[in-house]
DNA sequence: TGCACTCATAGCCCCAGGCTATGGCCTCCC
DNA sequence: GGGAGGCCATAGCCTGGGGCTATGAGTGCA
């Protein structure tokens, strides 16, 4: 495990690239120029690459520096997404806009929408509750929150809704698992009869899966775990195939930590919906957020 | 700018979730238990959320903790991708497998492929050269590297190739720009006649653009910049519309920092190809990497 | 030739975060 | 009932990374 970099230093590097000098980047970071100088030098030592070309009239990134800055920007974007989501979770009380969401949507999509909302309306504090789908509906009905996001096809009575996306449950295995090399699509019956690593009963993911398996002979799960991360971990360790939201495994499949198994004959697509109280048209920030979420 | 979190602490949090106790997570991180205890407490204070439920027989994540751990996992994945890529760039000398790639592929796709290669063949040090497309071809021909990745349709003589993906140049503007609200697709002629923020001549991105504009009346660029990050920055600042690889702006569009403008009547799709010396079939790690990259 | 800008070095200082040692709490088992 | 063995938190010590200021060297411009 090759010690992780330090986000502040990465930010500094990116800023050097954008601003053209160590001193400017230091100012942007709120530190003195020599500190920035030292930090960047430290980063160069740690990565073992020359990153910055110093000249008496400014600094530019080396070829390596530009590459590293590109990757660093990705890391920073993810970190900012985290901070945004945390803000929203924390500001539950004082928020001008209150949103409730079930887990998958909250984890992978809501932070992005909130990011754009913040771009357009920087002054609106947003509160985010993450609960299960049934509770989302209850909160919207109780007018605890203006807007909710839920998974699954059923829209509880008393709510208006709009589809804002779709999620596909996928089957993933560790790269070493026999199914990783499978060329023929897996049939629903075979999947149902296999002991799987799955989310716990009551979660939206599990419910979708159980509905899809209705009528098939279904083996008991190999493991039931309470978070997407735990399920992924178990699957990576090779315990058994796992079934998870496509959003949750996107990055892992892209980087090869998990392999997606092709699937046929079983419908694991579910729509993601925004819901709000019927006959109570959305206004202000809630309307903007819905518009953002509805965009293709 | 709300101070960035610390990756080691995030890793610790994720590990607590997976391993079920602070002490275990501490051991995994190579630190003593009280240190981990303090770090996690510190993280909780900083984010303003209770993250961990401590009991005398272990610790589990709270609801908030599971959410934060989910986002943290995304950040950590991006950071690991960075470290992998840095390793590959640095190990240029001693590598058993040498790869050259042009910028866009190197920045957004190669680290992922290398990640999977490392999963399958942990002991192969990989060297990565990032140069422009012409140089990639030269290095492959000179047998400096076994495998190259280039953008664009032209395959230089003497090379075999396989398409491993496609990239689409997209037009993006700051959210405040008039085009951000445009409903009708932009025509090629209008785009060509607009002063744009673009990459420098000689870059693959610029070349593709110039080819697509051939025959149209073309305005001179508003700005020419040497990296995708710089172009994005200028576009975000509202300078002018920018044209960039879809991979480069994916995250920014998703989070609303940039808005993609629909485009019609001009072909900005280019294929990404793996190239190798003709008549020199790939073997060993190079063959595996090609197989990984070729996967849909 | 001075001024304005760049960056690096030197030297000081402080606290964040590491460590060990200890104690409370709970469960399991003898 | 009473260890034993997990868990965690607190206390107190110590070190080093990384902050700061002050300064000097290099370059370009007026």
TrEMBL record, chains A, B:
InterPro entries named among the record's database cross-references: LysR_HTH_N (IPR000847), LysR_subst-bd (IPR005119), WH-like_DNA-bd_sf (IPR036388), WH_DNA-bd_sf (IPR036390)
Source organism of this protein record: Nonomuraea deserti
Family to which this protein belongs: Belongs to the LysR transcriptional regulatory family.
GO molecular function (one): transcription cis-regulatory region binding
Gene3D superfamilies in the cross-refs: Periplasmic binding protein-like II (3.40.190.10), Winged helix-like DNA-binding domain superfamily/Winged helix DNA-binding domain (1.10.10.10)
Domain HTH lysR-type: 5-62
Stretches that traverse the bilayer: none
Pfam families the UniProt entry points to: HTH_1, LysR_substrate
Protein's UniProt name: LysR family transcriptional regulator
Record carries keyword Transcription regulation: yes
UniProt KW keywords: DNA-binding, Transcription, Transcription regulation
């Amino acid at each position: 495990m090759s010690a992780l970099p330090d986000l502040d230093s990465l930010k500094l590097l990116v800023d050097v690239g954008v601003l053209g000098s160590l001193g400017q980047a230091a100012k942007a970071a709120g530190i003195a120029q020599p500190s920035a100088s030292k930090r960047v030098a430290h980063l160069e030592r740690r990565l073992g690459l020359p990153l910055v070309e110093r000249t008496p009239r400014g600094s530019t990134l080396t070829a390596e520096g530009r590459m590293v800055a590109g990757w660093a920007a990705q890391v920073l974007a993810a970190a900012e997404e985290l901070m945004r989501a945390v803000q929203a979770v924390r500001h539950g009380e004082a928020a001008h806009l209150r949103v409730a969401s079930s887990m998958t949507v909250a984890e992978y999509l809501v932070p992005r929408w909130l990011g754009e909302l913040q771009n357009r309306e920087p002054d609106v504090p947003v509160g985010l509750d993450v609960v299960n789908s049934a509770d989302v509906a209850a909160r919207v009905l109780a007018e605890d929150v203006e807007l909710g996001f839920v998974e699954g096809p059923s829209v509880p009575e008393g709510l208006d809704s709009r589809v804002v996306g779709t999620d596909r449950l996928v089957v993933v295995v560790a790269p070493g698992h026999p199914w990783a090399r499978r060329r023929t699509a897996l049939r629903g019956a075979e999947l149902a009869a296999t002991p799987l690593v799955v989310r716990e009963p009551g979660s939206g993911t599990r419910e979708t899966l159980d509905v899809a398996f209705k009528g098939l002979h279904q083996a008991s799960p190999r493991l039931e775990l309470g978070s997407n991360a735990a399920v992924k971990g178990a699957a990576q360790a090779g315990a058994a195939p796992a079934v998870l939201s496509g959003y949750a495994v996107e990055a892992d499949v892209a980087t090869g930590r998990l392999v997606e198994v092709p699937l046929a004959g079983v419908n694991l697509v579910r729509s993601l919906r925004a819901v709000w109280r019927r006959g109570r048209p959305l206004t202000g920030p809630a309307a903007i957020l819905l518009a953002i979420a509805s965009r293709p």
